[in-house]
Amino acid sequence: MVQADARRIHAPEAEHGVKNPYLIGAKVYLRPLEPEDAVPLSAWLNDPAVGEIMGIRRPSHEESARRFLAKSAKDPRQVGFGIALRRDDRLVGTTVLHHISHQRRSAALGVAVGAPAVRGRGVGTEAVRLLLGYAFETLNLNRVWLHVVASNEAARRVYANLGFVHEGTLREEAWSAGRYENVLVMGLLRGEWEARSGR
Amino acid sequence: MNRPFRVGRTVYLRSIGREDTADYQAWMNDVDVWRHLQFNRPVTREEESRFVERAMAMDDPAEINFAIVRRRGDLLLGATGLHGIDMVRRSAGFGIQIGRKAEWGKGYGTEASALVVDYAFRDLNLNRVWLHVFEFNERGIRAYERIGFKREAVLRQECFRDGRYYDVHVMGILRREWSRRTRAASTRRKRSTG
Ligand SMILES: CC(C)(COP(=O)(O)OP(=O)(O)OC[C@H]1O[C@@H](n2cnc3c(N)ncnc32)[C@H](O)[C@@H]1OP(=O)(O)O)[C@@H](O)C(=O)NCCC(=O)NCCS
Ligand SMILES: CC(C)(COP(=O)(O)OP(=O)(O)OC[C@H]1O[C@@H](n2cnc3c(N)ncnc32)[C@H](O)[C@@H]1OP(=O)(O)O)[C@@H](O)C(=O)NCCC(=O)NCCS
């Protein structure tokens, strides 16, 4: 008894022995988001690079992040995942399909790799590739689209590498770091995805 | 005129009222109208009433709705408004439906849209107004181009109608483009009168 309690205090991670990998890649896997993920999420949301793209311009607290997760989980038009590293099961970001429409078989995609130290190592690319597989092959969607601020070179690169097509530019649709910025609309159709993944 | 809010030459905008519910419900169930909108379910009286009550309450800061009324005969034509109003980005989405089909193609949609865009820039201090329109809606696209909206993006296959996919056009207008147009128009007016 005493032993178990001690372990709980010193290694809170060990409590969540089951990590529930749902979609598994080479470096990362996507798993369901849990209430306790509000702790890292809240820290990421305080980074303007993440908070601004989600339209949140207020300081985040664990409690607001928890409510945000609970609300998202209840919305039938979204499916959100945590991005975890296979190496150590650490949660490093989130990725989500939102605005899912079954009538036009379309959804929007969002991704954030939270800790800046983890960016630029292929995590975002692999997470989005897993989510696209889910969108087209599991949900039977026809189109996945997204908005990206023109100056976000890393994100544009990830999407272009995965085959997204630049469909147009919304002039001055973003307000970022004290100025208006253009927003690119990018889209990927099922046929384009299948051609690339060799189906 | 009843509760006029912004008045044009042939139409005016006013707040939506309960008296509009029956017409709106009929129009939202008319396939010639809803095939141009991202709307795929029949609309019950209760659902339409909910929209009307929300519009009357005017308590959602992200949305403003108006009734469009023809001045001659004080005839209700449809509804228009702004949604997704974001006061940080100073951007809003625009929408319009003229449900009274006999009145299509007479310039009312163009004039009502111009009243809303003018309101967005001059009263709400917005910087950008955007809209989505299906590729086959030639009447709408023509009306928006006349006002000065520019095509910014083509969302491929974002619309499904009559058993196939269609593209959706995103059109946008910026405040500086609108003030340039209204300045040019008032110069023209002064020249012709002076
Ligand atoms: C955008 C984001 C998800 C990308 O994830 P990531 O794990 O860093 O991305 P990857 O390592 O898989 O790929 C990054 C790509 O951008 C390139 N890149 C990185 N920084 C860049 C820069 N400043 N300029 C140009 N290219 C850059 C990398 O070289 C790589 O391309 P490559 O594979 O062709 O070499 C991540 O940076 C992030 O979360 N940023 C903050 C939130 C955000 O912007 N989300 C997206 C909103 S649309
Ligand atoms: C779209 C709508 C608002 C336009 O309003 P309207 O009063 O009918 O349009 P207007 O008369 O002001 O302008 C229509 C323009 O299209 C032109 N036009 C009319 N019918 C046309 C057709 N079949 N093909 C191409 N152009 C056409 C007109 O000549 C006019 O252009 P002009 O001023 O250069 O002559 C209205 O028709 C409507 O509500 N339709 C149903 C719902 C809808 O489509 N809502 C908008 C969704 S984005």
Q: How would you explain this protein's 3D organization?
A:
The complex is a heterodimer of chains A (199) and B (194). In chain A, 33% of the residues lie in helices and 31% in strands. With 199 residues, chain A is of the alpha+beta class. Chain A has a domain of 139 residues: 3-Layer(aba) Sandwich (Aminopeptidase). In chain A, α2 packs across α4. The longest helix of chain A has 16 residues. The radius of gyration of chain A is 18 Å and the shape is globular. The termini of chain A are far apart. In chain A, 33% of the residues are buried. The N terminus of chain A is likely disordered. Chain B has a single domain, classed as Gcn5-related N-acetyltransferase (GNAT) (Aminopeptidase, 3-Layer(aba) Sandwich). Chain B starts with a strand and ends with a helix. One coenzyme A binds next to α3, β5, α5 and α6 of chain A.
The main β sheet of chain B shows up as: 8 strands, mixed
The CATH topology name of the domain at 2-140 in chain A reads Aminopeptidase
Quick check: average pLDDT of chain B?
Answer: 96
Largest pleated sheet of chain A = 8 strands, mixed
Portion in beta strands of chain A: 25-35%
Read across the widest sheet of chain A, the strand sequence of neighbours is 1-2-3-4-5-6-8-7
Multimeric organization: heterodimer
Uncertain regions spanning at least 5 consecutive residues of chain B? none
N-to-C SSE string of chain A, H for helix and E for strand = HEEHHHEEEHEHEEH
Strand element count of chain A? 8
Indicate the CATH architecture of the domain at 2-140 in chain A: 3-Layer(aba) Sandwich
Output the CATH class name of chain B. Answer: Alpha Beta
Number of helical stretches of at least 4 residues of chain A: 7
Order of strands, main sheet of chain B, comes to: 1-2-3-4-5-6-8-7
**Cα-atom radius of gyration of chain B:** 17 Å
Along the chain, the helix and strand elements of chain B come as EEHHHEEEHEHEEH
Strand elements of chain B, count: 8
CATH topology of chain B: Aminopeptidase
